[in-house]
Write a structure and sequence with these properties.
The protein has 299 residues and is an all-beta fold. It has 1 helix and 22 strands. Strands 3-4-5-6 form a 4-stranded antiparallel sheet, with no helix packed on it. A 4-stranded antiparallel sheet has the order 7-8-9-10, with no helix packed on it. Strands 11-12-13-14 form a 4-stranded antiparallel sheet, with no helix packed on it.
Length: 299
């Protein structure tokens, strides 16, 4: 997102996710490494000049506009563009229907959600695990549907197949896929309505990844829950998963947290960055490629 309100994108464009009116065809970026046809340099997204936030996944991108509207582009097989049509792709932005007061947009695996100025949350797209939070499972939606029981959200994040909302009370509610405990409610049962994360009442930020979730607490500590096979919970007790939050060890001054596929990072008050979890391609930034179940400093 540029200071002008325009949005530039680059990379794979097989689903039109660069939004510039072109489509590079199926997977030629990944298979042939044809970086020119998949956007080696930034390309301007068509028709957007007043963006205030941008969010993306591997096949989809969305922009929040200053008007409170949301435009999305890219893959739409499961309705994740939210424009009431079941398209395969759109290589230019299309307007999400029925939303004019959004304050935040988040893109998950194949679903999308928006935080509204009212504190409510709307979601659309794939719903195989209840990740839309509307009380339905397996019924995708090509238009936004309201998440049940939430009226005081201050942040919403979409993981791969689950969604979480930070509430004004400091609590966190999550819904969707819970196979590895990513909802943090003490169970491994999927939920198509919000369920409260156990033991957290002072969160100031939430971040979601594949099947794990982390929260930044007002104390500067970070708690994580869900999948842990690569140490992505950061508590030095690598296990298959944890259905309740566990404290990331050695972090007491975080001011931001982010969760990737199977890794997580925290920005500290010192401006140091610590990361933990999967590290096969060096995503922890510590100069190694060995996974870590404890935070390590980015060099």
């Amino acid at each position: 997102m540029l200071s002008t309100g325009h949005v530039d994108c680059w990379g794979l464009n097989a689903d039109g996710q660069l939004g510039d009116g072109t489509n590079s065809g199926p997977d030629n970026c990944r298979l042939a490494r044809d970086h020119i046809s998949c956007g080696k340099t930034p390309l301007e997204v068509q028709g957007i000049s007043d963006a205030t936030q941008v969010a993306s996944s591997p096949s989809l991108a969305c922009a929040l506009l200053s008007s409170g509207d949301i435009d999305c582009w890219g893959d739409d097989y499961d309705g994740e563009l939210g424009n009431a049509e079941s398209l395969t792709t759109s290589d230019i932005p299309v307007e999400v229907q029925g939303i004019s007061n959004a304050t935040e947009v988040t893109v998950g695996g194949v679903h999308t959600c928006a935080l509204l100025s009212t504190g409510h949350v709307d979601c659309w797209g794939e719903n195989g695990y209840g990740e839309l939070g509307d009380g339905m499972t397996g019924v995708q939606s090509h238009i936004p549907v309201e998440v049940q029981g939430i009226s005081d959200a201050t942040q919403v994040v979409a993981g791969s197949e689950h969604t979480c909302a930070l509430l004004s009370s400091g609590h966190i509610d999550c819904w969707g896929n819970n196979e590895r405990g990513g909802l943090g409610d003490g169970s491994t049962t999927d939920s198509n309505t919000p369920t409260e994360v156990q033991g957290i009442d002072n969160a100031v930020q939430v971040a979601a990844g594949w099947r794990d979730t982390c929260a930044l607490l007002s104390t500067g500590h970070v708690d994580c829950w869900g999948a842990d096979e690569d140490g992505q919970l950061g508590n030095a007790a690598r296990q298959e998963s944890s259905a309740t939050p566990v404290e990331v060890q050695g972090i007491s001054s975080a001011k931001q947290v982010t969760v990737g596929n199977q890794d997580a990072c925290a920005l500290l008050s010192s401006d140091q960055i610590d990361c933990w979890g999967e590290n096969s391609v060096g995503q922890l930034g510590d100069g190694k490629t060995a996974e870590s179940d404890l935070p390590v400093e980015v060099v």
